[in-house]
Amino acid sequence: MLLLVQYTDTIQIYHMNNLDLFSEFRLRVKILDSNWCSSDRLFIQFGDFSVKVYDVNFNVNFDYGQLMAPNLFNLNQKETNLFKLKTLVFDRLYQNKLNDLSQEFNSSELIKILSERFKNSSHNLIDQFAYTSAIINMNGFETKFWTLVCYLTDDKKDSDERKFRKTLGYSSFVIDSSEFISKEIEMLNLYREKIENQQLNSLLRDFILANQLDSAFNLLMDSDPINENYTNNLIKACLMASVKNSDENSNAKTSIKLVATNLIANGMIYDGVELLCLIGLVFDACRYLQDNNEWEKAAWLARMRLSEIEQQEILKRWSEYLISNTINRKESAIFLLLSCKAYWKVLEILTDTNYIQLTFLFFHHLICNKIIEIGENIKFDQEKNFAEQISNQIELIENSLHQAIAKKIVNNFLEFRKLLDF
């Protein structure tokens, strides 16, 4: 058995039994990633984002760099600072001076691709950020962030030109509720055709939670008589039919709520949640799921059944859990808060990350498009430097918390530019 060890500019392969060095590969280009393709083949992704497949003696088997995309970056330079290149590209897009980049970096192919893409005036700045981030492909978070911002602020979500789904995912909690519900019900009906007996309870539960009671009833009535849960399934079908046809304020629903809370208190969480959903107490069901660490299922249920305001309350509570010190999943929390349009909270979290340029550009976008309010007395001249203008007027921001966030964003960005010698 062989062990693969990756360094910044070196790959080593060792024998696992005695840790003797089997082979070594040194080069002057930065190595971004490597892994095994098979027991005697490995791939290496280089600093120019090309991918090559080698055998264990580092003989090239295949070069995917030429197959997949043109070489966007200059590899002849001893040191190609790809982070600075990415930062410069975004900076020039922000200043509408993309063509100036060809004089600063030998990256004519990249400039050609971006210029061709953005010659159509229908591409707004956020659209450009999303596409550029995907092309340069240095950070998955940035790509998804700009794509989500573009999705949330775009009126053409259903256009063939918009392919947000590929990045946001088909079961993403951040997409539009109606679209989410449609896709989830479509998937449930697809699963129903493929269902095995051991998966019946899981599918039945989702039909009930999604308020697809007719489908749940039919699924119960189709139970196999030899199934050990056959009798219970038919009794549950009777319960569903009676609840569906009962009066909104009937005593039966009060009794069902009592039974549901007892079930949850005794560890039978989903049995209790099903009953709560049957009598319309969906928000309570979501809170019980969250209290029992079923955060993702609570978000799914909220998206399927709750109003937008109630959804946001559930998602915001989840985001608070994600940014807690014990979990520390700030990037996931940012996406949830973006979908809730809690933009100041997103900015506050971003200021404690290393995404300094992204935070500033997002802040600029929110202000220039009047998505967030910072004060009636603050004025901007589109022809002048935004960072300097906001820096001189920060004290005029009315909300003290927002003022502190804005100050930190601008100060971080000015220090960032100074550090990179822009």
Outline the fold blueprint.
Layout: E1 2-6, E2 10-15, E3 21-26, E4 31-38, E5 41-46, E6 51-55, E7 60-63, H1 64-68, H2 82-95, H3 101-104, H4 108-118, H5 125-136, H6 140-152, H7 164-168, H8 177-194, H9 200-209, H10 213-221, H11 230-244, H12 251-265, H13 269-278, H14 282-291, H15 295-305, H16 308-322, H17 330-339, H18 343-350, H19 356-368, H20 386-393, H21 400-419
Antiparallel strand pairs: 1-2, 2-3, 4-5, 5-6, 6-7
List its traits:
422 residues, alpha+beta, four-stranded antiparallel beta sheet, three-stranded antiparallel beta sheet, 56% helix, globular
Order of helices and strands: EEEEEEEHHHHHHHHHHHHHHHHHHHHH
Structural class by sheet pairing and helices: alpha+beta
Shape assignment: globular
Helix content: 55-70%
Question: Mean pLDDT across all residues, rounded?
Answer: 82
Order of strands across the main sheet: 4-5-6-7
Low-confidence stretches: 64-71, 74-80
Distance between the termini: 49 Å
Number of strands: 7
Sheet having the most strands: 4 strands, antiparallel
Radius of gyration: 27 Å
Q: What share of residues are in beta strands? A: 5-15%
Helix count equals 21
Quaternary structure annotation: single chain
